[in-house]
């Protein structure tokens, strides 16, 4: 989990939609709705997209397994 900052992790939790590729797609789509004064969020989102793009699906699945609460 150390690859991602707390802010990046929060963004992942908000937009996580199942797969790594779906999450990347969601984040890219979200960036198109940002205003010019939201540069910090744009940069944060791009950082997450870059990191997700560099990791494998297996790494992503292990990482997100730590993020999802197990209520069983």
UniProtKB/TrEMBL annotation:
Superkingdom classification of source: Bacteria
Pfam families: TTRAP
Name of the featured protein: Transposon-transfer assisting family protein
Native species: Acetobacterium wieringae
């Amino acid at each position: 989990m150390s690859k991602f900052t707390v802010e990046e992790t929060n963004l992942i939790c908000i937009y996580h939609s199942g797969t790594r590729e779906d999450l990347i797609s969601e984040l890219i789509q979200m960036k198109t709705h940002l205003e010019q004064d939201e540069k910090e969020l744009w940069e944060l989102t791009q950082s997450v997209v870059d990191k997700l793009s560099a990791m494998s699906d297996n790494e992503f699945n292990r990482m997100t397994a730590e993020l999802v609460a197990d209520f069983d």
